[in-house]
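Input structure tokens:
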């Protein structure tokens, strides 16, 4: 069964307690447009692994280096039962105190939710799921770290013009990177 890196219940409660502070920060937070939203409903929390453009163009020989958490965490925030917002927290380790850095409404939350549902239905065996973020490609994927150490990825979101990766498909990480390398990264982020 695939699961995310587990955060203690006390940590999740502490994260939820920080969310109301973001409600008054205008359209990026839970503001007047989201008056019915419940910012205390924290869904899945994913350790974030960052994928730089250089990692895509020339991957390390040991791909496990790409599966190391960055210290950032992505939290799915549910309103009305659906993933509608994202919160980002930082920490120096798995059990340290989390500080929420930002929370915002984004369609990417629903796309990550859809990818997680796909993983739940299609990935068997023990595995840890993390969020793989490639800023230079404006891409989000779920990174699956299997119990045997094998790595794969399931696309959650990418720019409309990208054609090399498909939703609803699990790629070995080496193949995922090879396909992504055929896409053009943003000039300023590459």
């Amino acid at each position: 069964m695939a699961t995310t890196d587990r955060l203690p219940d006390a940590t999740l409660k502490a994260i939820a307690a920080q969310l109301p502070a973001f409600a008054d920060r205008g359209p990026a937070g839970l503001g007047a447009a989201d008056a019915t939203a419940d910012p205390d409903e924290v869904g899945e929390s994913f350790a974030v692994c960052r994928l730089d453009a250089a990692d895509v163009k020339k991957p390390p020989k040991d791909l496990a280096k790409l599966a190391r958490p960055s210290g950032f965490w992505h939290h799915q925030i549910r309103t009305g039962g659906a993933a509608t917002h994202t919160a980002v927290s930082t920490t120096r380790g798995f059990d340290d105190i989390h500080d929420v850095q930002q929370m915002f409404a984004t369609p990417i939350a629903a796309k990550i939710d859809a990818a997680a549902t796909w993983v739940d239905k299609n990935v068997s065996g023990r595995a840890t799921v993390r969020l793989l973020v490639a800023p230079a490609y404006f891409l989000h994927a779920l990174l699956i770290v299997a119990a045997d150490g094998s790595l794969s990825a399931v696309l959650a979101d990418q720019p409309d013009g990208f054609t090399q990766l498909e939703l609803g498909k699990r790629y070995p990480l080496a193949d995922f990177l090879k396909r992504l390398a055929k896409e053009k990264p943003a000039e300023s982020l590459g």
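The chain has one domain: 2-180. The mean pLDDT is 87.
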